[in-house]
Amino acid sequence: MIKDLISEGDFDSLTKGNICTVVYFSTTWSIECKFMDQVVKTLSKDGFNKGVEFLKVDSELFPTLALRYNVTAVPTFVFLRYGVTVDRVDGTNAADLTIKVNSIVDGKPSSEFSDNSHFIERLKRLINRHKVMLFMKGSPEQPQCGFSKKMVALLNEHNISYDTFDVLTDFTVRDGLKEYSEWPTYPQLYVNGKLQGGLDVVTEMIQSGDLQELLAKAAIDG
After folding, report:
1. Which residue intervals define the domain Thioredoxin in the entry (predicted)?
2. What is the Cα–Cα distance from 42 to 155, expressed in whole angstroms?
3. Would 138 disulfide with which of 50, 118, 119, 143, CB 3.0-4.6 Å?
4. Rounded to 5 degrees, what are φ and ψ at 15?
5. Can you give the pTM of this predicted structure?
6. Domain spanning 2-113: CATH 3.90.190.20
């Protein structure tokens, strides 16, 4: 069975309680979506009693959700485990979609579909990989967005030692960390495992001296 999202307010309640929800972003006019409708219809019948739910979301009716999951074209399929993004399929890749759904149905999930607690532990390990951890788009040498570039320049200007993770290399981390931190954009800066914020917040913290004080305390507690 495929559920159609009627109200954006229902989205979290329809996804966070499920072992796996496949969120199908589509539009009514897309020829590609009409093709994938048949694929999803078949998969939903096969997987319904195995803990896999399908939720169809019209990306034009719910643009906020499309933005939240970085949907820039349809069809797009976002896999959520207890509300946390663990994988996705972009476009009319029926074979890839089928393989990923069947991996759950067969009880042989790939590493992306590990238990939710394991995924959260992975995020925690990444966050705590360095006392100052920056999740950004690209690398310090080659930032892939203006905000990430400015954040790197800011940290370097103040001689702050930090490590980075390129969220563009791992969709599961990119989308999952947004859910975990409840912070919708990148870059994100963590100190001692705690989110400090994005570029604007960190800039204010440096200007006020709060970040330097926090880093000094982190070094003492070290």
Report:
1. 1-106
2. 51
3. 143
4. -120, -35
5. 0.52
6. no
Per-residue pLDDT band for 173 (boundaries 50, 70, 90) equals confident
Q: Are 175 and 69 in contact (CB under 8 A)?
A: yes
User: Distance (Å, rounded) from C-alpha 158 to C-alpha 68?
Assistant: 32
* Cα–Cα distance, 179 to 89 (Å, whole number): 19
User: Cβ neighbours of residue 132 under 8 Å, at least 6 residues apart?
Assistant: 155, 160, 161, 162, 163, 189, 190, 191, 215, 218
The length of the chain is 222
Name the residue with tokens 């759950």: 104
157-166: per-residue pLDDT in tens? 999 999 999 8
Q: What does the block give as tokens for 163? A: 């490590």
Alpha-carbon distance of 200 to 156, in angstroms, equals 16
Q: Can you name the CATH fold of 120-221?
A: Glutaredoxin (3.40.30)
